[in-house]
Amino acid sequence: MSLNAIDTDAEKLPFEVTPSSVTIGGEVSDLDLRNPLNDEQVDGIRTALLDRKVLFFRDQDITTEQHLDFARNFGELEVHPFAPNKDGYPEVLAITHDRDHPGQENGWHSDVTWRLEPSLGSILRCLECPPIGGDTLFSDMYAAYDNLPEAVREKVEGKFALHDFEGFRVRMRARGASEQQITEFNKAYPNPEHPVIRTHPETGRKGIYVNAAFTKHIIGLDQADSDALLSVLYLQAGNPEYQCRFRWANNSMAFWDNRACQHYAASDYWPHHRIVERVTVIGDAPYYTEDGPVTNMDESPFRGRIKRQHAAPGPNLFKT
Hints:
Blueprint: E1 16-19, E2 26-29, H1 39-52, E3 54-57, H2 64-72, E4 85-86, E5 89-97, E6 121-128, E7 136-140, H3 141-146, H4 150-156, E8 160-163, H5 166-174, H6 179-188, E9 193-195, E10 197-199, E11 206-208, E12 215-218, H7 223-236, E13 243-246, E14 253-257, E15 261-265, E16 274-281, H8 305-311
Parallel strand pairs: 2-3
Antiparallel strand pairs: 1-2, 3-14, 4-5, 5-16, 6-14, 6-16, 7-13, 7-15, 8-9, 8-12, 10-11
């Protein structure tokens, strides 16, 4: 199995993709999203997304309708039940940070894993950037899984974890939501149990599918053992070797696969403005299978501590 999700022949794509790092991220050029995409271009973007996990587009001065049209090429769109939507466009999540509303998404996560069917991917467009800062980092969950110590893999393969929208519930109460309203949301969005290690439905690759924002505990373990294992899994996203970093500019866009990567929005630009809009493509129910492509670890570019940890985790990696 190649380092990437699939073996992509870049010369056959109808546009150029410049890799951002070894296994994740690619900047797309020669594509104007003001124009409707043809079938070849849609297939090419999907192929490149599966390969690079997140794609970046520059200088896309598009309308909200064109943003939505682009996203609909890849599936139906979700309406976020808790976060603010753009007036007249329920599928568009409007995110504004400034002096009075500082950024708060600076934690590794995959979007809406508290849904029974979390998103396929998110498409974010930057309308106004701070003069410096506000980058978004992305981490490859295939690489994070591939390089897990065998002792950890044995403990989490086939396990499921509970996810919850607790953070949004706290914000709803802060905005004055009644307990009856909270109860109704709890019924509408029951806590799902997703596999700790998820099989990607299109590539067959396995990746870590827990995150500190929404995952509460691993089913079947006591809280101490669950916390110990989750802390190890959460730390994997922080390895720079698995990451790429995108510096935004006005009219930049990013399209990431929530099934294969996590992201982290750096909050280092206060008190400046950062205004973005997100459209999210509906996904399907996560699952796990033992079978699937296997990465040839002898060809892995990751060495040093990562390779040593994969073979022998050491006594302090986790406690049980």
